[in-house]
Specification:
The chain has about 160 residues and is an all-alpha fold. The chain has 2 domains: about 10-90; about 95-155, no CATH class. It contains 6 helices and no strands. It has helices at about 15-40, 50-75, 80-90, 95-115, 115-130, 135-155. Helix 1 (about 15-40) packs antiparallel against helix 2, helix 4 (about 95-115) runs antiparallel to helix 5 and helix 5 packs antiparallel against helix 6. It is flat.
Length: about 160
């Protein structure tokens, strides 16, 4: 802690996460670009097996920038007390176990229900666990997100979904 009660930037959990995600994403990006350039069987990006890792690393870099912005905002926020920091730093074991259980159920339901219905149920359960109580919003977000993923990957990119 600094003398004024603010967390230093390097001790901020969001900043640490941003550095970790940024480094992993940058490493994945370099790996994908290097192997795409040196692969004799891949000429175009649309047929390259390295396109998806490039996309994932781009989203990871955006996530790292977002986490860094949150960390900067937290360090600049006035009036943050040590009690509030301690309350926010406690792990949420119940939420973590709920997420793991929902993920396991999703993996088990995927072969039975197929991709879109299983994804709608999974996202709906996670939205409820995260505190969303308006059922219309939960249903709308779940259906739109599952439909968007299906449309993007299943229809536009012609990727086989489970």
């Amino acid at each position: 802690m600094d003398n004024n009660g603010k967390k230093s930037l390097l001790r901020n959990a969001d900043c640490q996460d941003a550095v970790f995600v940024g480094l992993c994403s940058a490493a994945l990006l370099v790996y994908s670009l290097y192997h795409h350039a040196n692969d004799r069987n891949t000429g175009e990006w649309k047929t390259s097996p390295y396109l998806f890792p490039v996309l994932i690393s781009a989203f990871g870099i955006l996530l790292a920038l977002s986490l860094l912005a949150d960390a900067l905002r937290d360090t600049r926020a006035a009036g943050e007390t040590a009690d509030a920091v301690e309350r926010g730093a406690r792990p949420n074991l119940t939420g973590t176990l709920a997420f793991v259980a929902a993920s396991a159920a999703y993996c088990l339901l995927m072969p039975v229900l197929r991709f879109v219905p299983a994804t709608v149920l999974f996202l709906g359960a996670l939205f409820v666990c995260l505190g969303e109580r308006k059922w219309r919003r939960v249903l709308l977000l779940s259906v739109v997100a599952a439909g968007a993923v299906y449309a993007l990957f299943g229809l536009a990119l012609n990727v086989r979904l489970p």
